[in-house]
Amino acid sequence: MENTKEIIEHISNLAHLEFDDEELKAITPQFSKILDYIDELSKIDLEGVEPMTHVLEDVNVMRDDIVKESITVKEALKNAPKHNDIFFKVPKVFD
Amino acid sequence: MLKPYFELRQQFETGKESVVDTINELLKEIDNKKDLNAFITLTSELAKKQAVISQENFDSGKPRTLEGMVLAIKDNISTKDIRTTCASKMLENYIPIYNATSVQKLVDAGAIIIGKTNMDEFAMGSSNENSYFGNVLNPLNKEYVPGGSSGGSAAAVSAGLCHVSLGSETGGSVRQPASFTGIFGYKPSYGRISRFGLVAFASSLDQIGIFCNNLVDLSSVCDIITGVDENDSTSANLGPTRSSSKIENIYKNLRIGYVSDEVLNNCTDYVTKKYRSDLNKLKEEGHELIEIPIHYSEAWIPTYYIIATAEASSNLARFDGVRFGFRPELNEGDNIYVKTRSNGFGMEVKRRIMLGTYVLSSGFYDAYYRKAQQVRRKITDSYKSTFDKVDMVYMPTTPGSAFKFGSRNENPIKMYKADFYTASANLAGVPAINIPSGLDDEGMPFGMQIQCNNFEDEKMIGYANYISKLINS
């Protein structure tokens, strides 16, 4: 297995997280212990067992397509950190 | 001390007590006990207004089912126009534009919301030490944790600050704090209570649950908030429960499943001893005790943490600083997602997002996530065959009573392992309820739980009332 530091770098990139040096110092040994612990699973032979994704295995709960009121633009923008009258505002993405 | 709602209601009806006075006294009591830190937001003014309406309804002889019942709501359950923070900096100023279905049903039934309770951030934790708003103290001894993640909801009921509270469970977050604070804590069958408005942690495991110090009031609330909801496609297609009508049943010849000494090996001596004495009492009443086999027990906690963190890493992707929630000051060239998430989430939440992202990442999915789903199937199958033979499973809720603050922070695995007795019910979706059972030599409580087959919630609450009286007599 790659070393934990490299794994953390890769995973934090995927998860859109970053850690400062002090946090890394705390999280690295803990993460390594947790990975060892969940590795318990690799010792169990479960060949042929159907994976279970959900308790309720009925799918496609359908409803009629009825046109009704939804939330207003004002409500949708209410909790946005930055917005104008009709849009969410984000930092410039392209120059 | 706050009387149970069912007693108080008779006095509201006859005019011996007033709803307005009750609310005012409770707000005073909450202020006296504010060091518990059970609440993140108090809704005092709203509660006072509601109390006037409730009083009018009693005066005119038209009280609703839960008229004047005082409720506290865990702060990850959406309340319209009332701040809902999930105990996170990420949602410190978030104000929902709608009520969760369970909240709406309670408000419609006349219940009064007195506040939003403190919790572990995004419901991730077993001690309530992971809140952006600080620790909740155990009302029975302030050096001890109240349990988590619904620590504030449990503490509020235990301290007599409300009649009933709502919490949420993903792996034991209602039953465990109920055990640590000496009250009842009910986790319904998966799908029995709508999750609409519950901020998602792990959607296939999450359920809203109920805390109360008596089962009469708990069952009244249960009968209001259960039932199918068009806004939650994972809600089970069933009407509301009718558990209130079964609460006083006396049961004969029950088949009770119990666990072997091996399963109890991480329990403290007083839990094991009380467990055996409870079983003896049940046997003396003529009930049949049947040992239930436990398979793959070493894999339960890894399985739970893999599934829960995988789903969490996906659910928490929505916190990106764009549409709602926190966004830090950004400098030229900063990545809005990375800066928002790294500054907005606390350490335990980040740790779990990391683990969840890892088990879903390319090259590891089959080794962890798929394997965990296979174990989940095995656990569920084993529950199914168990409930062919028994009416209920009876076992400890927690390996011991509450622990002291700071005693487990350095070792997350030790903290995770404490979920051993609770998490399997969430994986299989079966209903479970904590019953206060005993006290340790420090006087701190611990509980036992009853688990029943899927959708046998009504029966289970009846069993719980019967067994609770028996083991505490």
Describe the structure using short key phrases:
heterodimer; A: 95 residues; mainly alpha; 3 helices; 36% helix; B: 473 residues; alpha/beta; Amidase signature (AS) enzymes; eleven-stranded mixed beta sheet; 15 helices; 11 strands; globular
Helix content of chain B: 25-40%
Helical percent range of chain A?
25-40%
Radius of gyration of chain A: 23 Å
* CATH architectural arrangement of the domain at 5-245 in chain B: Alpha-Beta Complex
Beta-strand portion of chain A reads under 5%
How would you characterize the overall build of this protein?
The complex is a heterodimer of chains A (95) and B (473). Chain A is built from three helices and no strands. Chain A has 95 residues and is mainly alpha-helical. An eleven-stranded mixed sheet of chain B has the order 1-3-2-4-6-5-10-11-9-7-8, sandwiched between helices. Chain B has helices spanning 5-14, 19-32, 44-59, 101-108, 151-158, 175-181, 215-225, 269-284, 297-315, 336-344, 347-360, 366-389, 412-417, 420-428, 457-471; strands at 39-42, 70-74, 112-117, 164-169, 184-187, 207-212, 255-258, 288-291, 392-396, 432-439, 445-451. Chain B has a domain at 5-245: Alpha-Beta Complex (Amidase signature (AS) enzymes), CATH 3.90.1300. Chain B is an alpha/beta fold and 473 residues long. In chain B, helix 9 packs across helix 14. Chain B is built from 15 helices and eleven strands. Chain B is 39% helix and 12% strand. Classes of the chains: A mainly alpha (95), B alpha/beta (473). The interface between A and B is large, with 48 and 66 residues.
